[in-house]
Amino acid sequence: MSAPRRVETRIVPAEGFPSREVAVKLSEIAAVHALLAEASEGLSPAGLERQPAPGRNTIGMLLAHVAVVETHLGQVGLLAERDGHVHDVLGIGMEDEGMPLAPGAGPPAALAGRERDFFLDLLARAHAHTRAACARLEDADLATDIVRPPRPDGTQRVFDRRYILFHMVEHAALHLGQIRTLRATL
Amino acid sequence: MKLVRHVLRVPGGRRSAEVASFFAQLDDLNRRLLEDLRGTGAAELAWQPKRGQNTIGMLLAHMAIVEVFWTQVAFERHTPEALALALGLGIDDDGMPLPARGAPPAGLRGRPLRWFARLLARARAVSRRAFARLGPRDLEREVERTRRRDGQRSRVNLRWILYHVLEHQAGHHGQILLLRHQYRDRRRT
By CB atoms within 10 Å of each CB, which of A15, A90, A95, B160 scores lowest? Predict the structure, then answer.
């Protein structure tokens, strides 16, 4: 019988950021990304694009969605840019992840046949973008209201950067849970 | 015009601003979870997609158990008895992990959403009270635990515990949303 394993796990503030609160959040985002990589380990392109049923998300779509959303939030939230430009960072656009899928629809063509490394690269690019967006953030920047332009339906969103960083963690974790469920059914 | 406001208000005057921030995040997560579950009846909470798979009710009970479990690990006073005393539910009462083809635990059968909401609130009261005592440097503190199942030993810092409770609850929230989709699809067929 092999000896019990020993595991050490810490969240330590990322180095080199003026705000300690931001540095902690960056470490948390990195920790969730590591879990996403673990959850997709060994998956082939077929596993990544398998739909439980038409109209339902695939693991590949969810991984791409996490990267797309993190990048978009970095642009319009952390950097307070008026418009997102995810394609400049990831090489795919917001529409390429395919979410939300129409009822009965298949997965998006842009993700067809992609290897796991493609999705890990998207996550790595998104995280590098987030780190760069945080490079100059001070604690005082975290509670500043970011007011988004009204949407076509008239809805206007207001958020602060503290919420954005929290949302990056919980949004990625939420889809991590779904990826684990989908994986269990493969 | 509809205004949607997402800001994280961290209450001032706490011993540790970082702990206060974590709890503001956990509370936001819980609020949205319960919003997403509004109107869910006992039948849906107890619905299994197939034998051996978790129900929404099991996941909710599991979230409460895990929050109290890690809180007690953080303060090095976890025993199954202490957990049951604090939460009013035993460590295995979520039924997880279910054996292949296992049915949901009888103790959760027929429970309404408000019962699970109270359970989550009770778990939050336990964790909030315990972590509120911590000062700014306490999250660096490390604790060890040995897993019952396989004897694996792990060493974690208290900051990781708070992060893990958040990540864990968000992950199960995502699974609950999937189950709600599946339940709706099932009713259409």
Answer: A15
